[in-house]
Every structure is written in C-alpha cells, then in structure tokens.
Amino acid sequence: MKQRPELVRSVPLLDYEVERSGDGRTVVAYAATFDEAYEVVDFDGHYDEVINRAAFNRALGRGISDVQVLFNHGRTIAGTPSSEFSLPIAIPVEVKVEGKGLLTRSRYLKTPLADQILEMWQEGAIRSQSFRGPIYASRPARPGPNGRPVIERTALGLIEYGPAPLAINTSADLVAVRSAMVEDRLAALGDLSPEERADLARLLTLDDPLADPSAVEPVVEAIEEVDPPEVPGPSLDLLAAEAAQRRRRLQQENPS
C-alpha cells in the first residue's frame, strides 16, 4: 500500500495561555489555522496551502488518546532526529476545532525536558506550535491571487503536535529554515573544485533553475563523487527552486 504523504506545518502563536489554575502546567494554544493561505515548497511543488476548518473532523472523531505532544516534532533545529525530543513532553487534554484554528490544551509532564519547555512558554520564548499528520483528501489545485496554485487540504490526520522554535508557515521563517539547510548541504560539499562550486552557485541563482537541465548535470556529477553527509539534505532541484523563490521575493521587496 502506498504511504500517504504527511504534512508538517507550524503556525506563529496567535493566542496562548499557561493556565494559572491548579499547578500551572497546562498550556492552551493553536496548532493550525484555517482558511488562511501560506506559501509552501514541498512534494506537491510550489503553491499556497489552505487548511479547511473541517479537515481534522475525521481524526478528532477517533479521539486523541494516540496523539503525542513533542517538541519540534522530535527533531533538532537542523531537522535531524533527536532521542531527547522524541520523548513526550505533555498529555493532550483537549484538541478541538474553533473559528480560527485547531486549539490544543496540553498538560505538561513533570520531567526535566517538559520543565524546560514549560519555562519557555511562561517566558514567551516559544514562537509557534506545529502539527504532523497524513493527508487524506485535498481539493484540486486552483489558480491563486499570488500567481501560485492554491491547494486546500480537506481531510488530515493528527499524529502529534507541540511547540516549535520556528513558525515555518510564514514566508520569512520558511526561507530562514531552508537557507540553513542549504548551508549545511554546501558544508558537506567542501571537496568540490572552484569550477564545480561556481557551477553550483550559478545553478542556485538562476531565475528558472529547472528550465535548463544541462545546467544541473555537471553539478550532479560532482556531488556524486563526494562522500554523502551523515544526514542527507534536501534534493538539488528543491534547493534550486527554493533559491529562486527566495531571490524573487527579495526582488519584490526591493524593486530596482
């Protein structure tokens, strides 16, 4: 059976509260927003995504006993698996659909990691909440006002959610996270010759890097000769697409 693709999405904190009643270990915050388009580059291409307010109805109808609360999806800020962050930090008390998004109420455990993250909540150091879950249904892509297709997710699963240090649904943070991934990937290619590095730099700054497949060939050949990094980075064509996306955004923000 073909595995369903999963969404990993974050939203900037809208409203959140560390409940003061009891012992102050319950956090209320949104993990997703509804009917608001945000830019995405992933397995479906380059598009704007919208989550329908009924998208989680099916998942929530099954209950939340199997839903976990993890910090940053159990990964480091670089996106690598973390044995420490893969441990649950809280128990989901309530997850429900509200007007603006998916509202979660989580009771934090009395563990060192949970204590650290709870303090981040209390001090305002947490910037977003994220969720992860499979895609069950989406509406066909439609033209969007920003020149990109719009894909509406109408049925999603919910495997886990939790606080995250970056809100990757916002364009600025999306670029920041992926720029760091590009830098990590380039660091792993330190054995490239000056000519090969020039080819790679040229590819990543093309207005339409995928329009000329011949430009990719020498770079791919060079990369294949380099020992792979311990943690594989994103594919070359995706990095190129994101670099072009970043360049277009900068041109829009700073027109000549």
Walkthrough of the structure:
- This protein is an alpha+beta fold and 256 residues long.
- The chain has 2 domains: 6-168, no CATH class; 173-253, no CATH class.
- The chain is 29% helix and 29% strand.
- It has 6 helices and 12 strands.
- The strands form 2 sheets. Strands 1, 4, 5, 6, 9, 10, 11 and 12 form an 8-stranded mixed sheet that branches. A 4-stranded antiparallel sheet has the order 2-3-8-7.
- Helix 3 packs across helix 6 (236-253) and helix 4 packs across helix 5 (213-224).
- It starts with 5 loop residues before the first strand and ends with a helix.
Element layout with pairings:
Elements: E1 6-12, E2 16-19, E3 26-33, E4 38-42, E5 45-51, H1 57-61, E6 68-69, E7 90-97, E8 101-108, H2 112-123, E9 128-138, E10 142-143, E11 149-156, E12 160-164, H3 171-187, H4 194-204, H5 213-224, H6 236-253
Parallel strand pairs: 5-11, 6-12
Antiparallel strand pairs: 1-9, 2-3, 3-8, 4-5, 7-8, 9-11, 9-12, 10-11
